[in-house]
């Protein structure tokens, strides 16, 4: 068991390092080919922290581990709100912009409802996956249009986030090495997670909902904690909500388009409703002064701990 845990941790480290190299290389290459820093920065901010989930899900789907793939996405979204947003709120009070409550949050809740409706027949088929991907295209168009209406200082900040040193050779090397790290890390994580599930006597769905989901959410956790520490509270909240939308529409959509995903009944009546409930909880917790403080952060962390306890009760 200790060996498998070590392999999982090594795979996770390789996955995170590979994701960082790949994103930096892709951003630098895009700039070298004349794409505007604003567009590159907007894409990197939205997609960068979701690369580990994408790598793990594509690997799991290709290996036929569809339960693990579905569990990873739903579990990651629960971890995003409960663990990451809760932890960031302990570092510094998080301001929730009214626009987020009126636009991004309804879009997230709509995506949760769409997933539930599509999965009612017990499957996410290829057409369902394409429908989710179409929703992602619409989302990106909306984000781009909104971002261009932001103040010039915000657009400059997005452009600054796209800066990457090096020419075509250096950035090409980053892409190749990063992609190799993503593939290797994802395979190590998936294989060791399956072995741990067998050793612990739990299903692959549960292992995906718990340790795999937490592992692939670590980049979001690091980004949100650093943003909260620096006082960039808008980034901390926006990073979580944006990642949840990317997970549901892009990653789960691409997974289902690649291979139809069976949906267990417990997902329909327990985990997907819980994922929606975690997202809904932001509304009452942020009411009044539109701030998630330390008390609200503790509530989210306690709810996440209860979720983990429920999922892992078979280990006791």
From TrEMBL:
One of its GO terms (biological process) is intracellular calcium ion homeostasis. Gene3D superfamilies: NCX, central ion-binding region. NCBIfam families: calcium/sodium antiporter. The chain crosses the membrane at residues 6-23, 30-49, 69-95, 107-124, 130-147, 168-190, 205-229, 236-256, 268-286, 298-315. It is a multi-pass membrane protein. Residues 5-141, 175-310 form the Sodium/calcium exchanger membrane region domain. It comes from Rehaibacterium terrae. One of its GO terms (cellular component) is plasma membrane. It is found in: Membrane. PANTHER family: INNER MEMBRANE PROTEIN YRBG (PTHR10846:SF8), SODIUM/POTASSIUM/CALCIUM EXCHANGER (PTHR10846). Keywords: Membrane, Transmembrane, Transmembrane helix. This is Cation:H+ antiporter. GO terms for molecular function: calcium channel activity; calcium, potassium:sodium antiporter activity. InterPro entries: K/Na/Ca-exchanger (IPR004481), NaCa_Exmemb (IPR004837), NCX_ion-bd_dom_sf (IPR044880).
């Amino acid at each position: 068991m200790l060996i498998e845990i070590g392999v999982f941790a090594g795979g996770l480290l390789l996955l995170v390092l590979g994701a960082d190299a790949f994103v930096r290389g892709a951003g630098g290459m895009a700039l070298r080919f004349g794409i505007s820093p604003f567009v590159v920065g907007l894409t990197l901010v939205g997609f960068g922290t979701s690369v580990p989930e994408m790598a793990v899900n594509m690997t799991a789907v290709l290996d036929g581990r569809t339960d693990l793939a579905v569990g990873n996405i739903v579990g990651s979204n629960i971890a995003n709100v409960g663990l990451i947003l809760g932890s960031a709120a302990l570092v510094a009070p998080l301001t929730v912009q009214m626009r987020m409550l009126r636009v991004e949050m309804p879009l997230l809740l709509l995506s949760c409802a769409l997933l539930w409706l599509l999965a009612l027949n017990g499957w996410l088929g290829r057409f369902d996956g394409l429908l989710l991907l179409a929703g992602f295209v619409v989302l990106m168009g909306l984000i781009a249009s909104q971002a261009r209406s932001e103040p010039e200082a915000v657009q400059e900040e997005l452009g600054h986030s796209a800066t990457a040193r090096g020419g075509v050779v250096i950035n090409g090397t980053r892409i190749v090495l990063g992609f190799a790290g993503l593939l290797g890390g994802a395979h190590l994580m998936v294989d060791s997670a399956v072995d741990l599930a067998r050793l612990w006597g739990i299903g692959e769905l549960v292992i995906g909902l718990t340790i795999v989901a937490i592992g692939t959410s670590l980049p979001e956790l690091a980004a949100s904690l650093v943003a909260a520490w620096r006082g960039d509270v808008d980034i901390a909240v926006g990073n979580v909500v944006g990642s949840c939308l990317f997970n549901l529409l892009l990653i789960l959509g691409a997974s289902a388009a690649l291979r139809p995903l069976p949906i267990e009944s417990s997902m329909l009546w327990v985990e997907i409703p819980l994922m929606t409930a975690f997202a809904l909880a932001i509304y009452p917790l942020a009411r009044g002064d539109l701030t998630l403080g330390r008390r609200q952060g503790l509530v989210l962390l306690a709810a996440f701990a209860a979720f983990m306890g429920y999922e892992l009760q078979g280990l006791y």
